[in-house]
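I have been asked to look over a protein record a colleague put together. What it holds is a sequence and that sequence's fold in token form. Please read both lines and tell me whether the tokens look consistent with the sequence. I do not need a full report, just your reasoning and any doubts. This is what I was given:
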Amino acid sequence: MSKNEYLKELGQLLKAIPLQDRNELLADYSEHFTSALEAGKQESEIIEALGNPKTIAKEIIADFNMQRINKRFSLVNVANATFAIISLGFLNLVIVLGPLIGFIAVLVALVVVALVLIIAAPIGMIYSLGFSKELLQNSFLILMSISIGVLLSIGLFYLIKWLYKLFIRYLQFNLQVVRRNNR
């Protein structure tokens, strides 16, 4: 493989990155080739030292997606970064996807509980107004249910923010480990 073939393949593999960023990266790699050739190295040695373009492209795309997450929160950015890191190796499928599914399952369960507490309470109040003689007792229980649901919702908001930051740090750590193993 020659320098031009290497850069062309790397450029094709980096299609997920905006054109300006991709061109800057390719210019950096071209400059690396130029300086190594001037130092007396052969193209084959340089390519061997750089590594497989597929692996490099996966790492660059994972880095790019992690930078996107740090700039702007969105579920799309989190999903892109997660899948980019998973693509770096089969073991990442278990290491990254397992905790993500666990986080999502726990959060969905807690959100459902909060919504049930908030929604079921007014329905219970309507029911108790028409049929119950212990109106004061039922009203207190219904008000308590709504309060617990609202408090749980507020707590979930902060828990989700904290888990999001924790998961991003976990992805960054995983990316560093994969990078170390590839070198």
Q: What stands out?
A: Residues 1-51 form one domain. The chain has seven helices and no strands. The longest helix spans residues 135-182.
